[in-house]
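Supplementary Note 2. Why include the ligand at all?

Several targets in our set were suspected to adopt different conformations when bound, so apo predictions alone were not considered sufficient. For every target with a known small-molecule partner we therefore ran a joint prediction. The input for flavin-adenine dinucleotide is given below.
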Amino acid sequence: MSGGGFAGLTAATALAQRGWSVRLHERSPELRTEGAGIVLWNNSLQVIDAIKAGPDLMSRSMTPPAYETRMNNVIQSQETLDGIRWRTLTRPHLFQTLLVAAREAGVEVVAGSEVVGASPDGTIRFANGDSAEADLIIGADGVGSAVRDSLDIPLKRERSRDGITRFLVPRRKAELQALEPDTEWDNVIDFWNLDPRVLRVLYTPANDEELYIALMSPAADADGSRVPIDLDLWTSVFPQLAPVLEDAAKTPGRYYGYQTTRLDHWTEGKVALIGDAAHAMCPALAQGAGCAMQNAWTLAVAATEADDIPAALIDWERLERPYTDIAQDRSQWYADTREMAKGNQFQGDSVVTATYNPTDPHRHEVH
Ligand code: FAD
Ligand code: 5PR
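The joint prediction is reproduced in token form.
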């Protein structure tokens, strides 16, 4: 296994729990995650339950009363998402949850070990010159995947004009309430402004103490995409968020441009790619990590049941990839059109992946 992110840890855990001996190579000297907050939907929450990490995840996460969308501070919709499972949490909490599960399952984690490539016959190569043989090699090494690039799989990369800077800050609920008493500050609130200037704040409570805020602007807007953030600019457009924007301005932050990567195929012989290595996407539907964990799980199950691993991997991609393709397409479309600003974001094609249950053994039967 190459990569100890959300995809790699999930696949390693699911395989080890099925009796595989799993060695996970992570390039960084220690296992940790960057970034702020995250939203998980039914598809990944089912996987969390299946690897027995549910109680840990639930202990420090929440389901806000509604997903609210505003345009120029006027409410467009308040989606209560009835019947859809979803949780908000911090990325460090998700990472810790998965790391504990991996350790308990007996995964051998090798930190400070960089993978440089793999071959379809089941050889994995390391930066220190070593190599090893395996029945299954998984490239879960992120959007810059060395495993993927070593296989020369054709890929298409699509960039969007917008991007985002993310922060984890204290909730400051009482101060926000004092500024805008009628607002339900436990909601996710997607604050859009398109005219006269495209600036957006996605406000996502992650638990009682921590708030995830994501500040979006076009890459072409130098002040809007500046880090540390231009506090005067952001508070002039979002005065009701001043207390939390002040905290965000104290951290350096990093601006990420939206992009989508699509591969011609996800597997070659005994090698499979999952997560951002195979299917990086725009964050609009909050499904990047969700699809990573969903595909990690289904891959582990398919490989365990296989008589012939390369054939089983091809079959796995054929059956599972449509749920990721639709999330990538829809997220890219939302990023390109900014249609989320109209509200009612989570309907129809936008919730196909979110409501999928990858742990249901009967999921591909025709009803
Ligand atoms: P990564 O997290 O990138 O992990 C890859 C790992 O591999 C890293 O630890 C890296 O150090 C290691 N590695 C890299 N190269 C090598 C090598 N050569 N050898 C060994 N190890 C290596 N998703 C959601 O589901 N919900 C959200 O709300 C959400 N919000 C997002 C907001 C933003 C702004 C962005 C940019 C993304 C968001 N995502 C979200 C997407 C999500 O973060 C990613 O899709 C997810 O982290 C991908 O996980 P991964 O394990 O595939 O890759
Ligand atoms: N949803 C989430 C998110 O983090 C972002 C977006 C949507 C949870 C940005 O990071 O549309 O950009 C988005």
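The two ends are 36 Å apart (CA to CA). The chain has eleven helices and 17 strands. Comparable summaries for the other entries are listed in the accompanying table.
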